[in-house]
Structures are given as C-alpha cells and as structure tokens.
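Regression test attached.
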Amino acid sequence: MGYLHVAILNDKLMKIRFFLLVCLFYTSNILSQDFITRGKIEFEVKRNFKKLMSNSQSDILSNLPEFDVCYRDLIFSWGNSIYQPGRSGSSIYSNSAKVYTDLNKRQTVIQKNIMGDDFIYADSIRNVKWKITNETRNIIGFNCRKAVGIISDSVYVVAFYAAEIIPQGGPELFTGLPGMILGIAIPRYYTTWFATKLEVANIDESVIVPPTLKKIKQYNKKELSAILAKKFIGVLGKDFTEDKIAKNFLSSFTL
Amino acid sequence: MKNNKRIVPFCTKLLLYVIVLAFFSKDLIAQKNYLKGVVLDTAEKKKLSYAIVALIDLKDSTLYQSLRTAADGSFEINKVAPGSYRLMISYPNMADYLQELAISDTTKRDLGKLPMILEAVLLKEVVVKYVPPVRMKGDTLEYTADSFIVKPGANVAELLKRLPGIQVDRNGRITAQGKEVKKILVDGDEFFSDDPGLATQYLQANAVDKVQVFDKKSDAAEFTGVDDGKRTKTINLKLKNNKRNGYFGKISAAGSKDYYNHEAMAARFDGGEKMAVFGMASKTGQNAISYNELTKYVAQDYERIDDGSGRLMFMSNNNDYESENYYGSGVPSIISGGAHYSNKWKKDREKLFTNYRVKNIDAAGWDSSRNTNVLPGGKLFNSRNNNANSSSSFSQKASGSYALPIDSFSVIKISMNGNWSNGHSLDTGFQQSENELGFLVNNSQQSVSKWNNSRNFSANIGYNRQFRKKGRTLSFSLQNDNSHNIHNIYNYSANTYFEPSTGVFTKSDTLNQLQTQIGDLQSVAAQVRYSDKFSEHFGAVIEYSWKRSDAGNIFSTFNKRNGKYEDKVDTLSNDYHFVSNTNITGATFSWTQKKIQVTAGGKVFFTGFQQNNNMINQLRKRNFTNWAPSANISYQPSQTKQFSFSYQGQTDQPGVEQLQPLRQSSNPLYVQIGNADLVPSFRHGFSMSYYSYNWTKGHSLNASLSGNYVRNAITSKSFIDSNNRTVSQYINLDAMPGYNGSVYYSWEYKKVHLRPSVNGNFNRYGYYSYLNGLKNKNDNFNVNITVSANYDIKELMTLNYSVTGSYNIGKSTINSTISKTWTHIHTAGVTYYMPLKLELSSNCVFNFQPKNASFNTSINTVQWDATLSKKVFKNDRGLIKFSVNDILNNNTGYSRGASGGGNTYESDRLVIKRYCMVGFTWNFLKN
C-alpha cells in the first residue's frame, strides 16, 4: 500500500533533507518551491462552549466565556509526530493528553485521561474517507485545500491541508490527506483546530516518542476497552459495551 | 517471481515455460497491478519532486491513496483495488492534472510524462481558448483581466496600461480607442463618483475579472431605449466574485527633504455594500497635474435640464473662480480626503450612494513670458511679463443619491449634491511692452488679490416608470439649483505710458480698487418624458420641460481713499436681476434594425428673458426661440465592427455680457465693450467614426472624423493702439469650418510579445476677426503622429518606446509670415524585474524643439526619472521604493509656440527639478 512507498521515498529524501532545510532557512526566495518535512505547528483549539452545552441546564454556562481556547503543539519529523499540550490558553481545563503517530507503521499511541485516570493505549491510524474539494483557504501563509470527511459514521469533518508540508499527518487522530492538515472544523461539536504558527528551526525532536507514564502499562485499544468496560460498568450502565467504549472514549479527540 | 530461477535446474524447458506462465498469471491476478509515471513542469522541462499523486475513488469520490513523487519526479502505485479512479496530481501553484482511469487486477500502466502547468499560464491558455482575452459584446469591448499579466500588487491603472487600445498617460488620463475616458464604474456603479480615477489608483488589478469599455448612453437613452446620440466613454471594472467581499487598502509614505507624498486608503466590500475612505498629502509637482485631470470627471448622477440660458446669466456657468481647480502654476501642496458609502438591496434595485470629498491646496510659484504680437501695417509689440503667485483653497463636496423601487415597474430616485469652497490667491507682477522701433510704450506693475467663497446645492427627484409593453416608459423629474458666490478682488496697478515714436514719458496712472461681486442663482425645472414603440423597429420619445432661473448679480467697484475702499465707482458698478423662463419641447424618433440604428429628432426652446438693472430701475425683455436638431446613424455589420455618424445643431444666444458688458474691466490695458446688435449664432457639428477589432490577431482600428461650422459666430473686433492698449468688441462673423480626424491602430506580435500602435491626428481650425479695422483670417493646421511599442521579454523586462512628431502650420492674413514648427518627443521606458523581488524602472523623455523661422535656437531637453523598488512581506504586500526625479536636473518648465502672422510666445515657470525620494507602501487585503 501507499505507506510502503512513502517509506522508500523517505530513504531517498533523507539524503537531501539537510540541503532542503538549508534552503528553507536561507534561500526561500530562490527555490521555486520549498517543501517542509519537519517542524512544530501550534494549533489553536477553539470550542464554542455555549453552543456545545446548550442542552445542559447548568447555570455555570452563564459564567463561562463563549469560547474555550487552548493550544496544542504538533511536533513532526517525516512520518513521526507527537501532538501534545502547548502554551496555555483561556481554557479552564487542564489536559495532558498526547498522541504519538507513526505514519509509516500506521500506528498511534495515545495518552489520555479517561474518567479521572491516565491511560496509554496503542491503536491503528484512523481511516477517514476524505473527499477533496477545489476550495482553498490560506492558513498561516499556506494555501490549503479543503477536504471533507466523515467520522463516527455521521459526523462531518472539514479539514484543510497544506501540500507544501510533506508528512500526511495532522492534529488529534486526523491523518490521511496528501499533505499536513493545518485546520480542522467539526461543526457538530462546535470545535475548530487551526494552525497559528509553524516553526522549522531549533525543534527538539527528541520528544517525538510514544508517551510513557510511570506505573502505567501500554494497552491496545481492545484490551483497554475491556478494562474500561469492567471498571465503569457501575457508572455507565450495562448498555456501555466494549464497542461503545472504544468508539466513545478511545476514538474521539483528546479534549 | 523470485522463485523462478531456482526452479530452472529441475525442469525441462517446456515445463519451465508452463510454470513461468502459471506463476506470472497467478502473480498478476493476485496483486501485481501498477500505475506509474513521471511528473514534469512543462514550462521549465523540470521533473517535479514531491508532487502529490492521489487516486480518488470515483465510486464515492473519496481519496483512495496519495503519495509524493520521488526526486526524479517518478511515482509508482501498486496493489490498487480494482475500480474506477481519478488520478489527481497537484503541486503548489500548478493547476491540477486530472485523468480518469479504470484499474483492474491486471492493469499495468505507465502513464509516461505527465505535464503540469503553472496556474497562471493555464489560466491564460484556457482563457485564450474559451474566453478570448478581448471580445466585443454588443457595443462593449470586454477584456478578460487575467489574460494580461501584471505584477502582484499592481493597481488597475497598471492593468489598463497593458490592455491593447487603452492608454494611460503620464498624468493618469485614460484614453480608450482614441477617446478620453470620462467615467469609471465598479461593478456597474459609481465608486467615488466625483473622482472615479481613485478606483484605478486603489483597486488591485487581480480583483478585476473583466474590464469593459463602452460608450455609455445617457441615462434617458438607456431608460427609454431611444438613442439620443449622447455618449460618454466609460470603463466598467467587473470584480471577481470572490473579491466582492472583504477589505483592502493601502498605506504609503514617501518623502525627501522638500517633497512628500503620503496616502492612506481603506475600503470594505461586502456584496452590494461598499465603503471606502482615503486621505492624501502630496507635494511632488507630478501629482498636481494628474490630480487636476482627475477632477474633470463628470460627477452628476442625473441629467440636468438645460434651458440654453447658461451664457445669458454669466453667473451660472462661471468656473473661473472655482477655487478647487488648480491651474498648474507653482508647486502645490495638496491635502485631500474622502469617503464613500454605497449599498444595494432588493436585487440591486434599491440603491444608496454617498460621497464626501475635502481638499486643501496651497501653491506658490512664478512664471515669466515673452510675447511678440504682430499688427497690420508692419507694427509689432514685444511684451514681457514676470509674475509671482500664491494661492490657497479649501473645498468640500458631498453628494448622495437614493433609488427606491416602488413596484416592479417604477423607481423613485432622489439625488443631492452640495459643495462649499473658499479660496484666496495673490498675483504680483510686472509687464512691459516695446514696439517695433525698440521703444518702450508702456509698463505696468500689478498686484491682484482675490478672495472667494462659494456654496452650491442641487437636487433632483426623478420618477421612472416602465410598462408591460416593451419600450413604453414614462418619467418625471423635478430639480433645483441653488448657488451663492462672493468674490472680492483687490486690484492694484501702476501704469506708465511712453510716446511710441520717441519713447518719451507721457503719463502715468495708478489704480487701487476693490471689486466685489455677490451672485445668487436659483432655478427650478420640471420635465416629463414619454417613450413608446409603434412597431418592433420604430419608436419615439416626446418630452416637455420647463425651467425658470432667477439670478441676482451685484457688482461693485470701490476706489481706495484714505486707506479705505469706500469710494464707489458708479460706472464700474452694477446690480442686475435676471429671470429666464424657458419651455422646451422635443421629440426623437428611432428606427432600429439588427445592424442599423437611426435616430433623428430635435428640441425647441422658447425663452422669455428679463433683465432688470436695479441701479437705474430699467427693465429689458427679450423673447427668443432656439433650435437644436440632431441625428444619429450607427451601423454594426458584425460584433467587432461599428460605423457611426452623428449630427448636432444648436442655436447659441449671445451672452448678456457680450451684448452689454456688465463686469467692466478695470484693466486699463484691456477694455471690453459690448454690442447690442448681436444676433444668435448657429452651430453645426458632425462626426463619423469607425471601429473594428480582431481579437484573434489583436488588431484594433479606430478612426474618426469630425467637423464644425458656426454661422454668425461671435468673435472679436479689436483695436490696439500704439501704446499696446486693447479695446475689444464682440461682433457676428461667419466662422471658418474646423475639422479634425484621428486614426488609431494597434496590433500585436504574440510570439515575441511586441505590441506596437500608431496614432495619427490632424486638426484644422481657424477664425476670422477684425484687428485695427482689417479683417484677419487666422488659419492653423496641426498634424501629429505617435508611434509606440511595448515589448515584454518574458517575465524579466518590459520595454516601451513612443515617439510623437508634431507639425504645426499657422497662417494669418495680417502679414505673409507663415509659421511652421516641428517638434518631436521621444519617451523610452524600461521596467526590469530583478531577483530578490527588486524592480528597476526608468523613464526618459527627450523633447526636441528644433529651430525654425520663428525661433532661431533649438531647445532640447531630457527628463530622466528612475525608481528602484523592492517587494517585501508575504504576497508582496509591502513595497520599498527609492526614486529620483529629473536625474539630469534638466526640467525647465519652458514652453514656446507660434501662430500665423509672426505672433510668438515663450514662457518659463517654476518647476521642481532633481530630487530623491524614499517611500514605503503597504497593501492590505482580506477576502
């Protein structure tokens, strides 16, 4: 499949990546087209709380700001990336979730707090069927093309990807477009992820490793679903099967 | 596959074949389909690495797989699930390559070289193929803006320069098909209606989809469908759909030690809503001229009911004191600002427009001139005049209109215009005249200080109704004009006269006067107009209008006495009240076929005119009838060819001042007297024009010929005495016919990007006059030819060169001297696009005035300007500019000319010479 080719391609590219990087920094005007293969992207994650929670009767709502804003960093180098907390925004929640993605092996390792406990689990990359459109939008200077996909059977996702960034990654569990995803909007959840800046120099790539936590074992998705089903049967009721847990807790975003 | 070789030792050849075949086919069926190719950049013949190769499953149009091309531009996709796919190859700034493919388990397909085309190039090619870069739609010439390459960040003026058939001269004046463009619309609507040039200056070229050039018919002709032959050369800028929303603007600052040019502008377009503000402060010498040109654009958004009495009450059309007009003397400092708001609702039928402009101009300078004036009988005067001047003016203008649809057939439109201005100017000078013997005959020292204040207001309410029957319309309008003007002129002159035959002092006089003028004008007018179609081809418009104008004019002259201007001079003072009542009836008939359109009609003006001299309580009444016939024929054999002919006739009544001078001159060297015996004159004018365009070849031809003849033209009868004092009186005298013609032809060598054009003009004009009792025939003929060419060397350089040769012949019956002058001006410009987004442009004007019978020196000047600029920021939004004006310090402000009979003039004036300027411009844009 395609990733094998990406891997072969990568080996060839490795030889010239240094040259490319030099070009990026010093001669961006001379090369006709620059491609980016590694760097750090900051995403601004914006949730419209008021709309998101408009069903709840809580009057906490009236005291909340309309938008909950937090920042996430996506540090990527070729096929590997880590998506982790960035600078603090206005969000009232603290969130230490991380997503490690290996595009070549089509694997992700996710660290996530589920109902108060931290878990680490591995999963395969989510397959989203993307429809690529002809619309474009400029995000932090990149002309990004719009694609529309569906997750969880019926939730529409609008994504914008930059062809100039080669890794086919993105924030959260979103991947699989022909370039780096710099913007995501999920109207159903009143949530957007949009890149606010890209850095290519002085990136600490040593953080691009699967997340680990002391005394916490890495499961795979199936194992963890079973554990969670057992653990929360009292809380969630019998309707919450392993499948539902996998879908609701383990395949959604890290927010 | 790899196993095959191991099998060889164990098998016979036959078996081998069978096995190999078996393996092969099994292999193929299992997985071994592939798709490969190499992606290339067609223009650069370069292999494109990292291009995205994506397979889109046509079943549900989702992305099936995507990968990047290798360093050598190659790609290979294996193990594709059988199905129908669309191969999409994309690369930044390149147009997508799309190909549909059916892939089965056995597909082995090498697509070979896959060419990618730059989006910009593709656009051009697609446009050439499907939407021609230039085409004729009806009588509109339409250019597709993207077919003409301009640099990023270029404004519309720069785009217009690239369009064949359109020229933008150094002063910003736009001519299309040889005619001056008077109106510029944005999406069919006025944008800064009193100064549409702002649209070309501030709108970005890449926001424009189409540039449409047409002869705009009058509003009435558009509404009734019956052509009245009135045309305004108009450019409409049709914006791209995605540029109709968003904001844009520009901030620019440039300066040097003495000169500066700062501008700021911001606009927001939101569908039909447009708002914009701008401000500028400038002192560069160059801007002043273009600025002045721009104010010539027509502002009115309704048709003014003309009663033909404009010259009867000299107040109404007197622009001499309109302080906002700057006459090019000195170096002006201009501060100007404006705001525009417009909006449209109800499918664009409900419209609101408002504009506001404010201007302040301060200028100071000097000029000097030398004239030779030849009289019958071998007499002549050489005069010299040195003058220093300063002026300042402040003016504000506001205009607005609101159109309200009442139902689907009728619209009410209310329009209002107002302006307020104050101005002051001071001229001080010295002039002297010598006669042919070399004796001084007079000299005079003069100082004129003018103050003026004016307020004008006009409004119109129009009701337009259409009917179910096509071509039937009814319209009413009601309008009024109101103006109030005050002028105070302080005149000082000390004149000395000498005996012409000996040069001995004879006398001197001193004049120290204040002249005040208070003028008021009110007018009301109403009009009703009905049009109908009698058959498919035949239609008519009839109209009736009435106008009453009421003007008061108090003119007083005071001599200075005891330090105060209080000694009123009755002979130089008057107080008049004018009333004119005009009934106008008119009819126009039209006959329209597919290719031919003929209209003919006329108007009759019945005017009752009253003139009351309030000082002596004398009432004079006059009744007269004016005629204005007109006819038009236009023939359009094909979409790209048009021939038209028009005739217009008009009675001109002599003006009140021509019958009896009301504002008597206080200049003792020039006295104007009236003539009560003047009769109306009648003006005949005709014009013919031919236009053709061949867009496949890029040829454009525009030719026109026009002429005029005035019967009983009002001209002057002058006596110049031996002290060079002039007494002039108006008389009736048939005029000489005048003709002028022009041919404009431009073509294109597309392969070498060369666009030459030739523009030839001739002009013959002349007049009869009486000078010291002798009838003088003054006859002038001028021919000029301009050849210009634009040459683009790829994206690297554009070159342009133009030469204008001008030849003038002047004859006069006063003496046999025939003046022949020949001048030629060469303009060479180059723009060189260098790496690092640097751009060097340079322009050089060589002006040659060879010596001739009138002037025995040749005057050659070279004016060389250069600008170096660098684009900065993302999308070239910023521009750093360094410019040098007049590098050779050669600008002189010298001009000279000769007319028949040996009359010559030479003049110098203050101009700005060499200076350097550094500036920065930032364009912002968001859609």
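Expected vs. actual: identical. DSSP finds five helices and twelve strands in chain A.
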